[in-house]
Amino acid sequence: MVTEHASAPAANTAAQPDQSSLICYFQGGYVRLGEARIPLMTHAFLYGTAVFEGIRAYWNPEEKQLYGLRIKEHIVRLRNSSKIMLMADVPSVEEFTEIVKQVLRRNRFQEDAYCRPSVYKSTEAIGVKLHGLAHEFYVLAVPMGDYIDTEKGIPAGTVSWRRTSDTSIPSRSKITGSYVNPAFSKSEAMLNGFDEAIVLTADGHVSEGSAENLFMIRDGVLVTPQVSDDILEGITRAGIMEIAGYLRIPVRERQIDRSELYIADEVFLCGTGAQVSPVSSVDHRAVGDGRVGPISRQISKTYFDAVRGRLDAFRHWVTPIYTSE
Ligand code: PMP
Q: Whose CA is closest to atom 6 on ligand 1?
């Protein structure tokens, strides 16, 4: 029997709710999650040769509407990830979008949810390679609220692991096997008492969080690492830059040194899961005065209004799930 490391945070071992009756799309039809099974010899299981997306859907209680967030952008990225992994023959953006909507609809969610489409190498075979293998796709969805404290700010720490570089495993493709790299980083940070990891590139520049992009504010300018610093080209990151334009906050994409984070006025992480998550300290140095700064607060408020379809300027981000557009 395998036992957890004695000092692992208790929350990691907490029982998960039974999700086996949720509806997912698998092998060409809509089935219960508990019935969707893959054979042990599946290439994607043996070698991590799958790509995936995480899409959030937000419940708007006033409108009694579920909004899918940036579905098209996620599907475009999924198709790009697939192409990088030599899986070019995948459903069109329109076909994928319809399946994502159907899965959310069939689960009748009246709460925030998380949807995961994935394309995976389905051939049952031993042998490390990318070419000459069949692939299939699935789409699942589960209920999900905030899983990072979005109000208070979190302590973050740089970790000794480096972000996989584009010359080893491309970070711009969401490859399931490559997520062992952020997993090393996240666990090192958490077991050392931080809530989140800040991961550096091989040459020591700031790349991103374990599953979030990073922004800092210095002298009123919003700064984020450029796409060639081994980041995932985040959809929330792009959204934050759009919000910055709306709020007339100047933005720069450039390399960031680790010690710049120690003297930044504000730092926050962002991503589909993390949403906008302010950082209160980096490597035990308070960010600003350690409280959520005014620019992060303003961006965060705009973001949370936008994702529930409450801002006209950002209506193009959301797709209503329960009514036709
Ligand atoms: N970096 C990594 C490594 C991630 O896994 C994610 C989550 N998808 C992000 C950044 C944030 O990307 P997005 O805003 O597209 O969710």
A: 211
DSSP H or E stretch at residue 185? helix 180-191
Compute the distance between CA of residue 214 and CA of residue 210 in angstroms, rounded to an integer: 10
**What is the C-alpha radius of gyration for the chain, rounded to an integer number of angstroms?**
20
Return d(Cα 153, Cα 293) in angstroms, integer: 10
The CA 222 to ligand 1 mean position distance, Å, reads 18
Residues flanking ligand 1, CB < 6 Å: 54, 182, 208, 211-213, 232, 234-237, 271-272
What would the pLDDT profile of 140-176 be if each residue is shown by its tens digit?
999 997 655 667 899 999 999 999 999 999 999 999 9
Residue 174 designated active-site: yes
- In the chain, the domains with their CATH numbers are 19-143 (3.30.470.10), 154-307 (3.20.10.10)
pTM of the model: 0.94
23-52: pLDDT as tens digits: 999 999 999 999 999 999 999 999 999 999
**Closest residue to atom 9 of ligand 1, CA basis:** 212
Q: Which of these, 285, 292, 247, lies nearest to 267 by C-alpha position? A: 292
Catalytic member of 64, 174, 186, 301: 174
